[in-house]
Amino acid sequence: MTVKNITTMSGFLLMGFSDNRELQILYALLFLLTYLLGSAGNFIIITITTLDPQLQSPMYYFLKHLSILDLSSLSVTVPQYVDSSLAGSGYISYGQCMLQIFFFAAFAWGEVAILTVMSYDRYVAICLPLHYEVIMSPRKCTWAVTSVWLSSVIPGTLYIASIFSIRFCRAKIIHQLFCDVPQLLKLSCSNDHLVVIGMVSFMTAVAFACFVGIVISYVHIFSTVLRMPSAESRSKVFSTCLPHLFVVSLFLSTGSCAYLNTSSDSPTALEFLFSIFYTVLPPTLNPVIYSLRNETIKSVVRKLLLSSKFTVRIICPVATD
Predict the structure, then answer these.
(1) Where is the G-protein coupled receptors family 1 profile domain (predicted)?
(2) How does pLDDT run across 56-90, given as a tens digit for each residue?
(3) What is d(CA 141, CA 139) in angstroms, rounded to the nearest whole number?
(4) CATH superfamily membership of 3-293
């Protein structure tokens, strides 16, 4: 496909991380494996937090919705990249590109919002334990999650509305695994992208405000934890909170750097690395880091695995005393 044809075509060409055919297939298989692992982990979290009576507290309720957002976010970006890489075309239509931007922006904002709610939940649980049941009542938790999902539509809509003002003057080649806003800005004409940059700056400021709220929650949490006399209690709290803080920092820092750095015309290895950090790694690692140090989740998963190994007992129950 010539540069002229690429410039005039209605869609875009996703180059991914390499134009070498063998490397394209290798990367596609690696991303497919990552997608399957991440999807399985998030699906397990969603299943056990829905069905198991031990996991019905607000913390696990929020964790379930985080896993739904993670699974959705992975499904928006990775399957399209794997399919286009294995097919060798890399082509994505304009409509598919806009849908990717809408849903990725929506799910990314939903993840920021739910992580903020989760940090507040941990703050109330650790710093205000006597008021926890009143502050984090089932009705308020439902309202919080509903607000997260409804508010996620706003950034996706604003991004799409602002991108419609862009005219693309360069070859429509995107050096990324999906249609990402920073990459589209590099294809735009001189002043067409100012509206989108304003949108990016606004959403970055809102995300930074959420991050400040999360940091304030953790400052109070850690100051309370350090005053705890029991080393076991401190260890339990840190094992719950530190993975959460790690995910928030990784997701927001790499995402902000990628979206604010739109000056470079040629793709760099660091940009590719950042894109993986805020699109693929957090949704894949969340089930691992939230369950690895959580004894309740591990015990429920063990019980689930053991029950599945002996399903015959459910079909043909044996009489016991």
Answers:
(1) 41-290
(2) 888 889 989 999 999 999 999 888 888 888 877 77
(3) 5
(4) Rhodopsin 7-helix transmembrane proteins (1.20.1070.10)
Neighbours of 77 (CB within 10 A): 24
Query: How confident is the model over 133-148, as pLDDT tens digits?
Result: 999 998 999 999 999 9
| Average pLDDT over all residues of the chain | 79
Long-range interactions of 109-112: CB distance < 8 A, separation 24+: 109/151, 109/152, 109/154, 109/155, 109/156, 109/203, 109/207, 110/69, 110/148, 110/149, 110/151, 110/152, 111/66, 111/69, 111/70, 111/73, 111/251, 111/282, 112/207, 112/210, 112/251, 112/252
Model confidence at 315: pLDDT above 70: no
Extents of the domains making up the chain: 3-293
CB 113 within 8 A of CB 208: no
Q: What is the rounded CA–CA span in Å between residue 259 and residue 198? A: 11
8 Å CB contact between 147 and 272: no
Q: What is the mean pLDDT of residues 244-262?
A: 74
Contact present, 41 and 287 (Cβ < 8 Å)? yes
What's the whole-number mean pLDDT along residues 106-134? 90
Longest dimension (CA), the chain: 79
Q: What is the pTM of this model?
A: 0.84
* CB atoms closer than 10 angstroms to residue 138: 11
E-strand ranges in 7-65 read 12-14
Which residue type occupies 105? A
State the Cα–Cα distance between residues 159 and 157, nearest whole angstrom.
6
